[in-house]
Amino acid sequence: MSSSATAALADIVSSLFTEPLKGFNDAQIQIVDHWARLLGQFDTGADPAEYATALKMAPKWSASLRGDVSIVLRLATLKQTKAGVSLGVGVGPFQASGSFGFMSETASESVIQARAAYVVSNDAGEVGLVDVLKDLGIVDPLDPGEVENAVAKLGTLQNALPALPGDDGEG
C-alpha cells in the first residue's frame, strides 16, 4: 500500500473515532461561549434582580450521544504477467519451430473493518449557568459584583475542554 493510501486510510479511521466526539465537544464550547457573552452584557454595578433573572433564564445544557459507526474497506489487487518465446530454425528443406509461453495471474483482497460505539453524556441532566458558576468556585453567582470573575472562570472552562486529534479549533 502506498504512503498516500496509508495516510488516507489513517484519516478515515481517525475521523471515524473522533468526529462524533468533536460534535459533542463543539456543543459544550458553544454553550460556554453563549454564557460568557450573556454575562458580558452586565457590569459590576448591574441591577441585582435583573442580573439574577438573566442567570436563571440562561439556557441549560443537557447532552447525550449514542452512536455506532463502522466502515468496511475492501482493497483488491490483480497482477497479471504474460511472456512468450518463439524459435524457428531452418536448414535446407528442413524446418523446425517451437514456441513457449506462460501467463501468471495473482489476485488478492484485503478487508479492513473498523467500528466505534459511543455512549457519551454529561450525566447530570440539565446543567445551568448558576450551577456551573458554583462548581467553578464562585460563592454567590447571583451577585453582579462577581460578573468579571464569572466571565474569567468561564473562559478558563472553555480553554480546559479537551482538544481532540486533528481538531484545529474551528467549529
Provide the succession of SSEs.
HHEEHH
Uncertain residue ranges: none
Number of E-type strands: 2
Classification by helices and strands: alpha+beta
The backbone outline, from C-alpha atoms, is rod-shaped
How do the strands of the widest beta sheet line up side by side?
1-2
Oligomer: single chain
N→C terminal distance: 33 Å
Strand proportion: 25-35%
The major pleated sheet works out as:
2 strands, antiparallel
Q: How many helical stretches?
A: 4
What Rg, in angstroms, do the CA atoms define? 33 Å
Residues in helices, as a percent range = 40-55%
Q: On the 0-100 scale, what is the average pLDDT?
A: 81
Q: Would you mind describing this structure in some detail?
A:
With about 170 residues, the chain is of the alpha+beta class. The protein is built from four helices and two strands. It has a two-stranded antiparallel sheet with strand order 1-2. Strand 1 and strand 2 form a beta hairpin. It is rod-shaped, with a radius of gyration of 33 Å.
Could you give a short description of this structure?
The chain has 171 residues and is α+β, with helices and mostly antiparallel strands. Helices cover 40% and strands 33% of the residues.
Topology (SSEs and partners):
Blueprint: H1 3-40, H2 48-57, E1 64-91, E2 94-121, H3 129-135, H4 147-160
Antiparallel strand pairs: 1-2
Helix pairs in contact: 1-4
